[in-house]
Structure formats: C-alpha cells, structure tokens
Amino acid sequence: MESHPVILKELGSAIPGGRVLEITTTTGCIVGCSYCPQDKFARRQRAVSPLKHLRLEDFRRCLARVPTSVDISFAGYSEPWLNPDCTEMVEHAYARGHGIRIFTTLVGMKRRDLQRLQALRSRVFVVHVLDDGSHMNSRLVGDKHLDLIRQLVDADIATIRFVVLGEVHPDIIELIPAEALIRARPLSSRGGSVDPNIVEPRQPVAGALTCVEERHHRNVLLPNGDVTLCCMDFERRHVLGNLLRDEYEDLFEGSVFCEIVDRMNGMDGFLLCRMCEYAHLTASAC
Fold first, then answer.
1. How far apart are the first and last CA of the chain?
2. CA-angle at 74, arms to 65 and 5, nearest 5°
3. pTM listed for this prediction
4. Distance (Å, whole) CA 42 – CA 61
C-alpha cells in the first residue's frame, strides 16, 4: 500500500521531512486498487526475482546498512501486512532507532499485530480504508477486518489517520468518526503506469526539473533487496542498487543515481520523473 501523494498532502505537517526508505514486503497484492499499477510491478519484479516475500533475515541485513536518521516507511508497492513478518520488521526498525511510518489497509493484519504496533510511537499511522468495491476488493471486509477498525478507532494512537479514495465500504462507514476521515482522490498516474481511463497521464516535462517532494531521497526497498527511485517507480525503471550488497550511501553515488541527477538537470535520456505529476520545471528553466 504505497504512500499515496494525495494522502501525504492531506496530512501536511504530520509528515516530517528527511530521508525515507519505504518497504515493499511482498510481490503481489490482493487488495486490488484499480489506481495502483500492482500488476505491472509484480510482472517486472517476478522477472528479476522469484521471492514473493521480503524475508525477515534479509530485511535485518538491509536495515543494518541504513543510518538511523532515515525513517522506515511500511508502505511500498503492496499491502505490507500481506507479509506475516511485517510487525516484527516494524519492531526491529523501531528498536534500532528509526522513525516509523505506517501505511496500511489492515488486510493481512491480526488483532495481536495491532496490539504490538500500539506499543510503538510511530511518526505516521495511516489506514487506507476499503471502499465500496468501486476501486478495491470489497470482499476483504469481514468480521475480523471490522474488529480491527473498531480496535483502531478506540486506540490511543495520536498519529492515526483514516483515508478513503472514493466511497467508504457501507459496513465501515458507521465505525469511523466523520472528523477522523480524510477523503482524497487518486490524482497520480504513477509516472504513467496507472490505467489512463482512471488517471490520465500528464504530458512529459521537458528541460531541467525538480521533484517538489524530494522523492529521490524517499526510495523503495523490494523483496530481493533492490532499491528503486521512489514510490512512482512501479516498473523498476530506476534501480539504484541492492542493500544486500551495497551500502546505503552507495545508492546515491552510483551511475544510476548520477544519471538521474544529470537528466533532472536537463540531460537527454529516459527519466520517469518527466511523466510524474510532482515534477516541476526548475526556476532557471521556466
């Protein structure tokens, strides 16, 4: 469940700045958001690695290379709790001193997981509420899921936010106080990867540009240790390195990242950012 830019914008100052590593805990997602190019990610990822889940031991190895000043965001390209080890990953990152951000639909989560998460101080805790079936798999709403919603509504988590894109599932709508619910729209085409009938892609930006959210330092760890540029890169267009073999700092000193910087400064060559809604022309290029 990627950290959707609309959600981030709505939360505003609730999201502190700085570097972030998003964690994609699994390849493939049953939530089925129509505005998420999950199938494209899964197809590209499976061609590279047979791993379905990020293994706990691999997560620990990768995290050992990441400075504690980098926040760890459990979001990425799929629902994090479809990996049964996700809560233990959160606890491990928290114990190491990282700031924790959580973006989840609660699918795959159990009551005990929520109890363990409530014991932590997360910087951000966003629940992407399941809709009425217009854009998500509404069959996932059952008694256990509703119990989790009730538990969260009653929980004392200062950072909790409930976000819906579309209409809330009818069995959930009465459980969440209206003032706690943020309504948003899927404005991002994920660099042109989303079905154009759902989100029309933007025209490519020519010339020197900048990312208004500095997402080149908000990268995404994949189940095989690869790190992609940002949450827009569902098709693995810009792989910066692999944290099972590379140091975190090396991700930003290698040839791929240097090419990205050069192309953001106007050099020719493919750059996903040119199709991204969050790319703006630099002042000198306007």
1. 35
2. 115
3. 0.91
4. 23
